[in-house]
Specification:
The complex is a heterodimer of chains A (311) and B (517). With 311 residues, chain A is an all-alpha fold. Chain A is built from twelve helices and no strands. Chain B is of the alpha/beta class. Chain B folds into three domains: 170 residues, Rossmann fold, CATH 3.40.50; 62 residues, no CATH class; 235 residues, Rossmann fold (3-Layer(aba) Sandwich). Classes of the chains: A mainly alpha (311), B alpha/beta (517). Chains A and B meet through helix 7 and helix 8 of A and helix 2 and helix 3 of B.
């Protein structure tokens, strides 16, 4: 492969990884607060439509992006209602949300199939775009990709360096301790779920507004499930999530190129490649890290466990 | 002292309890709380004074925890009211109680294991949106130094011992400048030296003007640490005294349970029979050259501070871990042979320390819990004979006075003492020739302890009992011989009648005298 081709491949990898990174970070926030949200796929599917629709109506890509996030938060509010108020099973509620969100996007989206939108255009970041190799890969993208570079740091700062982040983590590790400290762990969990849903929604909106620039059914294409899996392999750490998301994006782009070259490897095998390789790449160090140090890379202690009323 | 349990609506606690001219930090006035048909608190009036340690003494289920949960804002009283520094308060949530200066150290620590000490201490009181880890650590370290608690703010709570975790809980309260510190059975999880240092910390905090409430059912520690003692029985205050007024622990015990307690159980001598357990040179898995031998008719107590190899020893004897080096012979068979074809009855029975986890399944009813270890006795072909199992469960419940005596109840619905009586009854129904009893009375109240002790003494007529305990008085009350375990080694083994050796047990437990075997 020529250097130009490799650079183009890596640039495509960054773009493919971006929506997954948004969603993975969202799911990290949700799980850190103790709520397993398996509905990411549905949230992304619906948000990709909501973003597209608002952009189409208002003509503003940024409003569309925001609408994607808000619709994600709204759907996850439903998950919060089921799990925090009615103490429903998180797994069942999450799966229902996944199906519901995808269905909803198809229901509302069918009349718009095939319509396209301007969305976000790529522009070179002044200065940085001139860097050799890195410039064309990282800094000739759209605004949402640049924003996404900041997100792992922002999420890490939020979780580790703010009082709200500390409280969210306490609700995910030991809700009783949070309650004894005078906090409301259910409220915190609802907040964590919806904040996470907002990020998942941003990821969904990215697909329709900046990646595809059009609306079609099934646009999310399983990225939500990838995000849920990446959270585990990333040890709930934003930095590792970025690594995993872009790795997956890389394999995705590579697989597409390979198909385009007309190789005689069956396409279904190629489609599988990104999933298999990403898991392999992340599992190996994970196994080593767990063996070396207990506790590191463990799930939040109360993940998926509902807060039962006492008395 | 009948006037202490007043029926009048106004607060008239005994005038000579506490300093008369000082306003109580907290005052409970005629507080009642009902759960369903149970009156957990019945018209309780109490004054909690600054600079004093008040012990609240009562059996399990006497209503101690309910009372304190109301103070901590977790429940609201149905009748009566609570005053803080003279003003009536009405707590909706723990947050309000914390704000009013009332802090609680629960029996099960409310700590996030995966966070640092500093994060745990400041949780909910961070002061500002952005956190500054360096300043958080400095604050907590300074506080720890000021009260001599010796906790590193940087440490991860999950890496700390139980005693250290408790001090983290205390730090949380001190950081919030709580004026009243409530301790719910604080020594239940502590080793004797840790309990001593806790008492020192309590006295130092009380000297600095904090009001301390100490909930317990252990008479000795209440007498050693408290200034004032209030006795709670069946949700009512049965009496309130100054600790200096108390003539004898037996008197206190009688008031607490409402009848005389036979803590000194008469033991009839039993002729030792054949050897049922023979451990020779057992090593590996944290143990070092352990030699023990136990005969039918004997109780051998293995004492030591928790974590000195008791668990490994018991797991090896009870078949969970294969001996790495040395031999273990059970009922005359070597380990491999014994566990290849072991009988469910007439052989080995085990009362594990973790009665709610290892010994029973919390959401199974008593019949199913009986079947956990005795199902071989209730099978017909591939089928379980549940009718016969239910009858057997009913027998155990009746014979061992398990309350409430309905076999359809699930394990979690029983109190710790009653569950323990059931487990012991189940294991004895297997007619063992070797019985391993691990911390059999931990957390039990006095009548339940008495019942368990009596059963163990009765059992030794047909059984050799290996009693693993951290409670020295239990070992001395029951055992024929004592073995002291320290860091996986047996540091001393002698009959309880050897008073010179018995004197040394404390030093041996602490590993101070390791030489003489």
């Amino acid at each position: 492969m020529s250097p130009e081709l490799i650079i183009a491949l890596l640039a495509a990898a960054v773009q493919a990884g971006t929506p997954i990174l948004y969603a993975t970070l969202g799911e990290i926030i949700s799980e850190k607060s103790g709520v397993l949200n398996l509905g990411v796929e549905g949230v992304m599917a619906f948000a990709s439509f909501a973003g597209f629709f608002v952009c189409l109506v208002t003509g503003s890509a940024w409003l569309g992006f925001l609408a994607g996030g808000l619709s994600g938060a709204l759907l996850c509010g439903l998950h919060s209602l089921v799990c925090q108020v009615f103490l429903g099973n998180q797994v069942v509620s999450g799966l229902a949300l996944a199906i519901f969100g995808v269905g909803l996007s198809t229901f509302f989206g069918t009349p718009f199939v095939g319509q396209s939108t301007e969305g976000f255009a790529k522009f070179a970041l002044p200065g940085l775009a001139k860097l050799p190799v890195l410039g064309p890969i990282l800094f000739q993208q759209d605004a949402l990709v640049y924003l996404c570079y900041l997100m792992p740091v922002a999420v890490w700062l939020f979780l580790e360096r703010t009082s709200l982040g500390l409280r969210l983590r306490a609700a995910g590790e030991m809700p009783a301790a949070a309650a004894a400290a005078g906090l409301n762990p259910r409220m915190l969990r609802a907040l964590g779920t919806m904040a996470g849903g907002f990020l998942c929604g941003l990821g969904g909106a990215y697909i329709s507004l900046a990646h595809m620039h059009l609306w079609a059914t099934g646009l999310s294409g399983g990225r939500g499930w990838v995000a849920v899996a990446l959270v585990v392999f990333a040890f709930w750490r934003p930095g590792r999530a970025a690594l995993g998301a872009f790795l997956f994006g890389g394999f995705m782009a590579f697989q597409l190129r390979l198909q385009a070259t007309g190789t005689n490897i069956p396409s279904s095998l190629l489609l599988m490649l990104p999933y298999a390789l990403t898991i392999l790449a992340l599992v190996a160090p994970a196994v080593r890290a767990r063996a070396a140090k207990g506790g590191a890379g463990a799930a939040p202690a109360a993940l998926g466990v509902n807060i039962e009323p006492e008395g | 002292m009948a006037e202490a349990s007043t029926k009048t609506p106004h607060c008239t606690p005994r005038a000579d309890i506490g300093c008369v001219d000082v306003l109580p930090q907290v005052r409970l006035c005629g507080v009642s709380k009902r759960f369903g048909r149970v009156l957990a608190s019945d018209d309780i009036s109490l004054s909690i004074m600054p600079g004093r340690i008040k012990a609240l003494l009562g059996e399990n289920g006497a209503g101690k925890s309910t009372l304190m949960s109301m103070l901590a804002g977790r429940f609201r009283p149905d009748a009566g009211h609570i005053e803080v520094a003279g003003a009536v308060v009405d707590f909706d949530s723990p947050r309000q109680a914390i704000a009013a200066g009332i802090g609680m150290v629960y029996q099960h620590f409310m700590l996030v294991e995966n966070m640092s000490v500093a994060e745990n201490v400041l949780l909910g009181q961070e002061g500002g949106f952005a956190l500054n880890p360096a300043r958080m650590r400095a604050t907590v370290d300074a506080l720890s130094r000021r009260f001599g608690l010796g906790i590193d703010a940087r440490a991860r709570v999950g890496d700390l011992s139980m005693g250290e975790r408790q001090r983290v809980e205390i730090l949380k309260l001190l950081y919030r400048e709580s004026k009243v510190l409530i301790f719910d059975e604080p020594t239940a999880v502590l080793t004797p030296p840790e309990a001593e240092s806790l008492f020192a910390a309590l006295r130092s905090m009380s000297a600095q003007g904090k009001a301390i409430v100490f909930i317990s059912h252990k008479l000795e520690e209440v007498l050693s640490v408290a200034d004032e003692i209030a006795i709670l029985r069946r949700g009512r205050i049965e009496g309130e005294f100054l600790a200096s007024e108390v003539q004898s622990p037996a008197e206190l015990a009688r008031r607490m349970v409402g009848r005389d307690v036979v803590l000194d159980i008469p033991r009839e001598p039993v002729q030792p029979g054949r050897v049922v357990l023979d451990v020779r040179g057992l090593s590996g898995n944290g143990l070092g050259d352990v030699n023990l031998s136990l005969r039918q008719g004997e109780i051998l107590a293995v004492v030591g501070v928790a974590g000195n190899g008791q668990q490994q020893l018991v797991e090896t004897i009870c078949g969970l871990a294969r001996p790495e080096a040395g031999t273990v012979e059970l009922l005359g068979h070597v380990w491999d042979e014994f566990y290849k074809h072991r009988d469910w009855d007439g052989a080995l029975a085990w009362v594990p320390e973790d009665r709610a986890g290892l010994a029973t399944c919390r959401t199974l009813d008593l019949t199913d819990n009986l079947l956990l270890t005795t199902r071989e006795g209730f099978t017909r072909g591939v089928w379980l004979d549940r009718a016969r199992a239910r009858a057997a469960a009913r027998d155990i419940v009746r014979e061992h006075n398990v309350q409430p005596g309905r076999i359809g109840l699930q394990a979690w619905q029983l109190s710790g003492g009653n569950l323990q009586k059931f487990v012991l009854g189940r294991e004895l129904s297997r007619r063992p020739r070797l019985l391993v009893a691990e911390q059999p009375t931990q957390g039990l109240d006095i009548p339940a302890t008495e019942a368990v002790w009596q059963r163990l003494l009765d059992a030794r007529k047909s059984t050799g009992v290996l009693l693993v305990t951290g409670d020295l008085s239990e070992a001395l009350a029951l055992a024929d011989r004592v073995a002291v375990l320290f860091r996986g080694r047996v540091l001393g083994q002698f009959p309880v009648t050897d008073t010179a050796q018995v004197e040394r047990i404390g030093a041996l437990m602490a590993g101070l005298e390791g030489g003489a075997l």
